[in-house]
Amino acid sequence: MEKKIAIVIGGLKGIGKAISLDLVDKGFITYATTREKNVATNVENLFPLQINIRNEKEIQDGFKHISEQYGALDVLVNNAGVGEFKAFEEFDPAEWEGIFQTNVFGIFHCTQQAFPLLKKRGGRIINISSVATKRNLPFNSIYAASKHAVSGMGSVLAEEWYKDNVFTTNIHLGATYTDIWKNVEGFSSEDMLHVQDVARVASFVATTPLHVRIDEMTVTPPKGVL
Ligand SMILES: NC(=O)c1ccc[n+]([C@@H]2O[C@H](COP(=O)([O-])OP(=O)(O)OC[C@H]3O[C@@H](n4cnc5c(N)ncnc54)[C@H](OP(=O)(O)O)[C@@H]3O)[C@@H](O)[C@H]2O)c1
User: Fold this and answer.
1) What residues does 125 pair with on adjacent strands?
2) Residue 142 CB-half CA count within 13 A
3) Whose C-alpha lies nearest to ligand 1, atom 45?
4) What is the whole-number distance in angstroms between the Cα of residue 51 and the centre of ligand 1?
5) How far, in Å, from the CA of 114 to the mean position of ligand 1?
6) Is-above-0.90 flag for pTM?
7) If residue 158 lies in a helix (H) or strand (E), which one and from where to where?
8) pLDDT bracket for residue 1 (50, 70, 90)
9) Which string of DSSP letters, residue by residue, matches 13-59?
10) For 5-219, CATH number?
């Protein structure tokens, strides 16, 4: 059977890396993007792709490469994201623009580039969003706004693109232990999801047959957000 092709945006660190590895385990040829140069994965069927999603040309070149190699794509995982958590009045506009350039506009560009490849034989888009879109968490305004933007886009694309057999799933994710939590006081990794938990959910969506539509999932540790 023909191998399926996936790309994980931000696929070599944290949650994205766990998703990339799990997709390879499920039989996907997987491209994992990173801003870093000259990276080797040493994993069969896991290919690094150097893309800074703040750079439109790099995004175009990355998807062109997949198009030239395989001519189609089965799964796009929009995982890359950054956050800054503080009182709204303390933000410099340059900071919120930076967060939106990555979390929103970068993800929009990837999604637009992926669509022609996804519709070749039908496929899925998985947006790694946040429970910050479900619960109003203080000191989270800009990050939450960026994730609302991505979830909003995903929900509408689910209506626009189902006719092309392209389905979008927003995963509203609770606290998951990665490097971003390492220096944050007052939180315990034991109260969080593991990256492998998220990978399991993403792979479930990625491998679900295309007559099933999964618009939304909220995935948290037992206590809820945290
Ligand atoms: N951890 C949590 O508790 C949690 C909860 C809810 C949602 N999320 C979401 O889950 C996603 C992954 O988070 P994480 O905890 O795994 O964070 P992380 O370890 O800090 O990883 C961030 C990822 O985003 C990529 N990235 C950042 N800026 C980029 C840019 N300009 N261009 C391309 N890639 C860029 C990084 O790639 P490189 O550095 O390799 O280039 C890296 O793969 C994020 O969207 C985050 O908002 C996380």
Assistant:
1) 76, 168
2) 23
3) 81
4) 13
5) 19
6) yes
7) helix 141-161
8) low
9) SHHHHHHHHHHHHTT-EEEEEES-SS----STTEEEEE--TT-HHHH
10) 3.40.50.720
